[in-house]
Amino acid sequence: MEKGRGMVIRRVQAVRRRFFGKPVAPRRDLRGRKLVVTGASEDSLGHATARILLEWGAEVTVTRRRGAESLAETLRSEVGRANAARVTGRDLDLSSAESVEAFASWYHAERGELDVLVNNAGIHLDLLSRWKEPRRTEDGFELHWRTNYLGTTHLTRRLLPLLEESARRTHDARVVMVVSKLHERGRNRAFFEPPARYSSWDAYGQSKLGLMHFAMELHRRSAGGGLATHCLHPGEVFTNVASAGLAGNSVVEGARNLLAPLEAFALMSPVEGAQTSIFCATATEAEGGHYYRDCSIARASRELADTSVAARLWDENQAWVESHAR
Ligand SMILES: NC(=O)c1ccc[n+]([C@@H]2O[C@H](COP(=O)([O-])OP(=O)(O)OC[C@H]3O[C@@H](n4cnc5c(N)ncnc54)[C@H](OP(=O)(O)O)[C@@H]3O)[C@@H](O)[C@H]2O)c1
Fold this sequence. Notes:
Layout lengths: L2 H17 L14 E4 L7 H11 L3 E6 L3 H12 L1 H4 L2 E5 L5 H15 L4 E4 L23 H28 L2 E6 L10 H4 L7 H23 L4 E7 L7 H6 L3 H9 L1 H7 L3 H4 L1 H8 L7 E4 L2 E3 L8 H16 L4
Parallel strand pairs: 1-2, 1-4, 2-3, 4-5, 5-6, 6-7
Antiparallel strand pairs: 7-8
Helix pairs in contact: 1-11, 5-6, 6-8, 8-14
The chain binds NADP nicotinamide-adenine-dinucleotide phosphate (NAP).
């Protein structure tokens, strides 16, 4: 964010916090805990999450598509010398199986231990619903599904052996899925019969519902062994998500630039928005197998009650990931 504008936004957010404060995750000593936070670019939820985790003593690996090393450098300068040595940056593009495989191999070889995976990276494009047809990745999948669901589940499965090892050692390994209340737009039948009319909002919701099925199924399969999964909606947060989703529309982009302080007042700051992620990743009282909002268990879509859908998706996903293993 440009410097002068950044200062105005931060002041507006401080005023907002005074009047509309949200629950805050309780501080926990995280020395010795190793976490991965995906999608931690500047001014994002992942960035605020990683910064707090570092300040609480954790070892954190952060990712973005390109430039993760300089992102780690930025975090080092933000968290001060005492915490700086515990952050590592590594590029990761969830829409590329090759990139996920490369990241996972590097992580296994160079880091070797993982207590908490915060699956935060995600996209929500075409916010003005202009696309009449799905945009597809090179391997033929709808963009949101490919990035948010397939990429994230691929990464999780590849890092699972390390999480299971931590579960045996610490009895407190976690997978945290940053989803969205828009998972409510997803429908179980749409996993198997794509809808006739395309909507990027539905596609985004479908990808998040898929992630929730995956998370709940993983929880059912592993909770007894000390590995818990948590899903959460961060709230409506002032990040880069809208800029990415509105990119290419110069009128809207110009209006947003002018109205940024208003937007920052209406929405939560990344630090406020990160609280539920931090709560799910660290709080001793956070119970796995649930969907959280504002650091509390919330009601999720009824579609999640059908565990046969979760099981079917799990098997299909496993076959897909295995077909991409190196
Ligand atoms: N902001 C909200 O109000 C809101 C509400 C509900 C849910 N969420 C969810 O919160 C999460 C974080 O979003 P945010 O608001 O912080 O958005 P953001 O500022 O746009 O950050 C998204 C992060 O994901 C990364 N990313 C994008 N495409 C990627 C890809 N193909 N592979 C790997 N990483 C990729 C971005 O990295 P690059 O720098 O490489 O683009 C960035 O670090 C998302 O999962 C989003 O769906 C946000």
